[in-house]
Amino acid sequence: MMGGGSAVLNVDLTVIGGGPAGLAAALEASENGVRDVLIIERGGELGGILQQCIHNGFGLHIFKEELTGPEYAYRFIEKVIARKINYKLNTMVLDISADRVIRAVNGSDGLVEIKAGAVILAMGCRERTRGALNIPGTRPAGIFTAGAAQRFVNIEGYLPGKKAVILGSGDIGLIMARRLTLEGAEVKAVCEILPYPGGLNRNIVQCLKDYGIPLRLSTTIVEIHGRERVTGVTVARVDEKREPIGSSFEFIECDTLLLSTGLIPENELSRKAGVLIDPVTSGPVVDESMETSVKGIFACGNVVHVHDLVDYVTEESRIAGKSAARFILDGGAYGTGLIKTRAGQGIRYVVPQLIRKNRLDNDMKLSFRVTGGYKDVVIAVKSGDRTITSVKKPKVSPGEMESVKIGKIHGDSFKDCDLITVQLENG
Q1: Bridge partners, residue 223, by sequence
Q2: Whole-angstrom Cα distance, residue 58 to residue 24?
Q3: For residue 359, what is the DSSP state?
């Protein structure tokens, strides 16, 4: 406790964030011998965003069955309780220092100072708001992020409106197009400024095509109408430079506008700790063990880069939990031989950004997104002109995260290399 000469709270591992990433990381660390684990969650319950994702499609990789978001979260919450892992709800972390001292505040403890042997950052991401999009028009009621509308419908029991337009084709927006339709609202259109959709192909099919909801590509909103309440929006097609085409302006009557224009990893705390941030992912630069540039601080899940599936978040978070346990219990044997990863032709970013040669294992994979929609391509991992491994793909899209496995089986290929490039080649 702070003040009155009270002692600092000492824990082996502090996990910041009680969503799917934080839960999986805390469990993995506990199962690997860390006895004193504390999860800090700013919300009123564990599970994070999963609690409002009542649709199915979760758990196919981890549990080999289809679950809803709350069901998926509950399986981890049950294990956290069974292992007697401590957690603090309604607790906001204010600051983290490079030497892993955390300052947090809540209603019952007041201001708390925690000294951790290791820290795992699992804060997830937030939605891009209207203010970041600079859409002209008035400021009427009826404009929501897709996630806010999802909470209103699924948890609070309110329908945001009767006639909706959705800007952006991220997965939450696609899912909300279906959800609003099922609740009796009319979704006039989903408008996407890019020439390809931003969400998973399965959501395009199951949420839009199956319900006859039009997807307008290369289209954006140029004005919002209404004073007290949204009365409509003006949409326009855009050219190759994403500039509106004047002759294509069209008014669509609606009382609700949902924004599904991308997710931003929430890294204010990471920056306070001095963690190096990748300008492309907006998340921490991490190595193969999910350790950041600050020793003893690890990161996982959507705070590192935005994932498509919660199953992939869980897999990555288990690596962070296991690595944090290793750091706490044996100080983390770092070894030598650092390899940098680089995004080559057709690739937007690669995670992890660093790999230690002595930590290569056969389950290690590089995750990345492509820069556009491509057909019949080869994803190649190269050291100079030498191809270490490659995977042929009939189709790739920026809306779907890709990955390729590297590891001990390619050990000889890494002996003399300090840089590997992931790139697209003709199939």
Answers
A1: 234
A2: 15
A3: G
Cα(25)–Cα(318) distance, integer angstroms: 5
Q: Report the interhelical angle of 310-330 vs 20-31 (nearest 10°).
A: 40
Would you identify the CATH topology of the domain 129-261? FAD/NAD(P)-binding domain (3.50.50)
Rounded to whole angstroms, how far apart are CA atoms 377 and 392?
6
Q: Is 151 helix (H, G, I), strand (E, B) or coil?
A: helix
How far does Cα 171 stand from its chain's mean position? 12
Which segment of 6-15, 23-32, 199-208 scores lowest on mean pLDDT? 6-15
What is the rounded CA–CA span in Å between residue 264 and residue 267? 9
- The domain spans of the chain are 1-126+263-334, 129-261, 336-427
Cα–Cα dist 196/42, whole Å: 35
Q: Which CATH class is domain 336-427?
A: mainly beta
Closest CA to 300 of 340, 262, 352, 365: 352
Q: Is 66 left (phi over 0), alpha (psi -120 to 50) or beta?
A: beta
Q: Is residue 55 a contact partner of residue 175, using CB atoms and an 8 Å limit?
A: yes
pLDDT per position as a tens digit, 212-242 = 999 999 999 999 999 999 999 999 999 999 9
Mean pLDDT of 378-389: 91
Quote the percentage of the chain above a pLDDT of 90: 81
Architecture category of domain 1-126+263-334 in CATH:
3-Layer(bba) Sandwich (3.50)
Q: What is the pLDDT of residue 224?
A: 95
Whether the predicted pLDDT of 288 surpasses 80: yes
Residues in the chain: 427
Question: One fold for both 1-126+263-334 and 336-427?
Answer: no
Cis peptide before 352 (omega within 30 of 0): yes
- What is the spatial distance between Cα 292 and Cα 71, in angstroms, rounded to a whole number? 31
**Cα angle: 369, vertex 372, 374; to 5 degrees:** 100
- Provide the 8-state DSSP code for 265: E
Instruction: Phi first, then psi: give them for residue 260, nearest 5 degrees.
Output: -130, 65
